[in-house]
Amino acid sequence: MRVSELAQRAEVPLSAVKYYQREGLLPAGVRTAPNQVVYDEAHVRRVRLIRALLEIGGLSVSATKEVIAALDADGAPLAETFQVAQHAMSARRTQESPASEAARGRVEALAVSRGWCFTDDNPGIEAAARALDGLQAIGFGAPDDYLNAYADAAASAAAADLQALTGLEEPDAVAELMLVGTVLGDPLFAGLRRLAQQDATHNLFPVPDPE
Q1: What's the CA gap between 163 and 159, in Å, rounded?
Q2: 91 CA to centre of own chain
């Protein structure tokens, strides 16, 4: 297919496809004539992946390049690809103060108490610890039952992520879902949490009937 059809099949504007090309995110097509290049279904999948990472997941171009490079690395373990996606998603978009050692220690202790296998450089440690510091700044110490409730929800979501991967057979499809699921899992979880918060608030703090 030509580039215009590629954009149509991937359901993105032609200008976006050309932008992905300029940024080196989209592999080159096959040149069949001096002024003609053709693309295939692999390019359609890649355009959709790039759009998911950039426009929906909110990654920067540089972070997206890292994720795609991990995806294209021959023979790279899935765990390594997953780690690249985690770090790309957790990259700081603004200047933030590092988390306190106390908060980091508490997050690590929680993970250890639940028997989780993790590395010291997992970006989740810093992200969760900064959240604890923010809660502490407004006088909320995040008691253990509060943290454990979040850990339970996180464990359930992580199990769902991995279960989804077991239903796929092609290695490329597994890697793509792992990457996109990591990037989009955060907003999915946050969106559902907001819905659940509204429901819980309605039940716990009902609005008085004006009648």
Answers
A1: 6
A2: 11
CA dihedral 146, 152, 154, 159 (to 10 degrees): 180
Q: Taking 80 as the threshold, does the pLDDT of residue 74 lie above it? A: no
Neighbours of 124 (CB within 10 A): 15
**Residue 63: how many CB atoms within 10 A of its CB?**
22
User: Is pLDDT at 190 greater than 50 in this prediction?
Assistant: yes
Angle between helices 171-204 and 61-72 (to 10 degrees): 130
Q: How many CA atoms lie within 13 A of 112 on its CB side?
A: 8
Whether 181 contacts 56, CB under 8 Å: no
**Measured distance CA(179)–CA(172) in Å, rounded:** 11
Q: Which helix (H) or strand (E) holds 172?
A: helix 171-204
Question: Percentage helix, strand, coil, to 5, in the chain?
Answer: 70, 5, 30
Reduced to 3 states, what is the DSSP secondary structure of residue 30?
strand
Helix (H) or strand (E) holding 37: strand 36-38
Tokens found for residue 102: 């106390």
Q: Which amino acid is at 156?
A: S
194/42 Cα distance (integer angstroms): 36
Amino acid at 18: K
* Number of alpha carbons in the 13 Å side-chain half-sphere of residue 68: 24
Contact between residue 73 and residue 85 where contact means Cβ atoms under 8 Å apart: no
Which pTM was predicted?
0.69
CA dihedral in degrees (63, 105, 115, 179; nearest 10)?
Answer: -10
